[in-house]
Amino acid sequence: MIFTRMLSRLILLLWTASCLASDPFFLRRQLSEIEPQPDDLTARAKGARYKPIFGAGDRDAGRLQAILRCGELTLEAGGASASVRYPREEQIYYVLEGSGTLLYGERQADIRKDDFLYLPPDQAHAVANRGSGLLRVLVLGYRIPEGLDAPRHAALPLANAADVGLQVLASHGPTTQFKLLMGQTTSQRDRLATASEMSSLFIMDFSPGGTNKPHSHAAEEEIYLLLRGSGDMVAGKTEDGQDARYPSREGALFYFAPGTRVGYYSGAKEGEEHDLILAARSRLPQSGKPAAAAR
Q1: CA torsion, points 67, 215, 93, 52, in degrees to nearest 10?
Q2: pLDDT(16) > 60
Q3: 197 within 8 A of 283, measured Cβ to Cβ
Q4: Other Cβ atoms closer than 10 A to 49
Q5: Under the phi-then-psi rule, with left for phi > 0, alpha for psi from -120 to 50, and beta for the rest, what region is 55?
Q6: What is the rounded distance in angstroms from the CA atom of residue 139 to the CA atom of residue 56?
Q7: Is the model's pTM score more than 0.90?
Q8: Closest alpha carbon to 128 in 119, 120, 137
Q9: What confidence tier does 292 reach under pLDDT thresholds 50, 70, 90?
């Protein structure tokens, strides 16, 4: 009898946890307010610090599914990170500021602001700052499910956002244009078709007052980083079912769980710089098929 009750309670707890995990929810951070924490990238490293945003090192890491980490690596002039490798994790780097050198295996490559690149699982890599200013890199890591072989590439997949053209996607209207930076190996329209679980890395460029129409993705997680500008981010809904809008400024970051309402309303006026958002979308682990191309 006691065993039966304990088993019933365990089943109830597991069922409750499963329901909570599937409920729409979001996480909100401001980059300037996050304190650096020790990390693999900073262990015994010179002039390196790491801010955990979502995933590894963050208090809500257990709420994420495909995403293992999202953080900011900052290197002082002359600094260098530790060399790291992760057997079941693919990583995407996006250079937010500065220039430096990526070391991967026995090779190296120069990197600069707005470069983006793909690092496959189990590839040793590090970053060094050869310049006189700060080097800041957004680090994104995604879980490779057991039994799935991640893509390998003969050369380092590396490109710069400035070399990717803007385009209008019919599903989002003319006030927002997209730079499709990186997709999965099956992609036919992204600049780099290289990833496995990270399904889409892209930049949204908003005309003054422009909008990314509120929407949701049933089987994907998403991260938004407001690179420039200020406006209202849509994240979930209010108690009366309306889109919940959160005033946001440069450096705002949002994590959106599957099924969570997401969108953006630019606060820029005519004649001002366009707002820019860097976004990364990932399919859920064990989904068994590539994410849909629609945005």
Answers
A1: -50
A2: no
A3: yes
A4: 19
A5: left
A6: 11
A7: no
A8: 137
A9: very low
- Is there a contact between 266 and 210 (Cβ–Cβ < 8 Å)? yes
In sequence order, which residues have a C-beta less than 8 Å from that of residue 79 and are 6 or more positions away? 45, 46, 47, 48, 128, 129, 135
Q: What residue segments make up the domains of the chain, in order of their start?
A: 25-283
Please write the tens of the pLDDT for every residue from 232-268.
999 999 999 999 999 999 999 999 999 999 999 999 9
Give the length of the chain.
295
pLDDT in tens, 80-134: 999 999 999 999 999 999 999 999 988 999 999 999 999 999 999 999 998 899 9
Superfamily of domain 25-283: Jelly Rolls (2.60.120.10)
